[in-house]
Amino acid sequence: MLSYVLKRLLLFIPTLLGVLLVTFLVIQFVPGGPVEQYLAEAKTAGRGGGGFESGGGSYRGNQGVDPKRLEQIKALYGFDKPPHERLFQMLGQFARFDLGKSFFQNKDVWTLILEKLPVSISLGLWTFFISYGVAVPLGVAKAVRAGTRFDLISTLIVLVGYAIPGFVLGVALLVVFGGQLQWFPLRGLTSANWDDLSWGARIIDYLWHIALPVTAMVLGSFAVTAMLTKNAFLEEIRKQYVLTARAKGLGERQVLWKHVFRNALIPIITGLPSAFIGAFFAGSLLIETLFSLDGLGLLGYESVIRRDYPVVLGTLYLFTLIGLVTKLISDLCYVWVDPRVKFD
């Protein structure tokens, strides 16, 4: 196992380099970078009259921005250096886990991630625990009662819920429960008077705000997990060792939970690390925008639109590294769950 883990860790290096290199090259050819945005802003302000003053430079009509000021802007964003130097500088920073500093928000990328992380954690963890806590028992019940009216009705409900996009359900929840009935707040993760509330009132206020966005996010993952659990249990129930256990006189409950349960949960458990880590970092842009939640999804979208390259590349590096580690943990879970799996 140690040899296998070391090989996988060494493969992280070319994978990270490949992802960062492709993204860096794409960035070089995408128009509308920070320097171009500055020029466009200066030109627009200059046409409005009076010129565009910034740090001692000005937009001078048809002559454009002062060349000295333009060189200062390029140096500020690091574009005074050739691309290969910027690439190696970026890789050196990432090797020290220095993700750089945002062009526009005057904050370190680490600081921005930590500021946005609580929102994504709140959405992701609730979605994770509700999805697995309800979907797995439901999938087991559907497998045991396969073909019955309960199985058919629950399958219909689950598939209908899966077919509704999360943001569409979110709009409906906002209109009905937030607008017409006014049972839930329309935006934010907490109320404005959060600091003045007691601990019990804070918990209630937080749950009150998080109810609608979590409901909108749960539906898709809930359906996938329930159906996957059902199919895995059905496959195991039909195998020979289950018939043998029943022939020995074991009770149905003992056969199900002692023999079938562990084998049937292999595809579920091996996906747990990815789902759990994804709960921290997989921000939902549409849900966050819809409910005015400032999380990682909104941060990633705004950084791409504004060409905030340190945030784009820094978060990409961090999330890619976390994804690789999570994939390795998922593969190791195969051996923990099923000793028959061998690394060689």
TrEMBL record:
The keyword Membrane applies. Keywords: Cell membrane, Membrane, Transmembrane, Transmembrane helix, Transport. It is a multi-pass membrane protein. Its main location: membrane. GO terms for cellular component: plasma membrane. Pfam families: BPD_transp_1. InterPro entries: MetI-like, MetI-like_sf. Residues 117-330 form the ABC transmembrane type-1 domain. CDD domains: TM_PBP2. It is found in: Cell membrane. One of its GO terms (biological process) is microcin transport. The keyword Calcium does not apply. The chain crosses the membrane at residues 9-30, 119-140, 152-177, 206-229, 264-291, 311-337. It comes from the Bacteria. Belongs to the binding-protein-dependent transport system permease family. This is ABC transporter permease subunit. It comes from Variovorax gossypii.
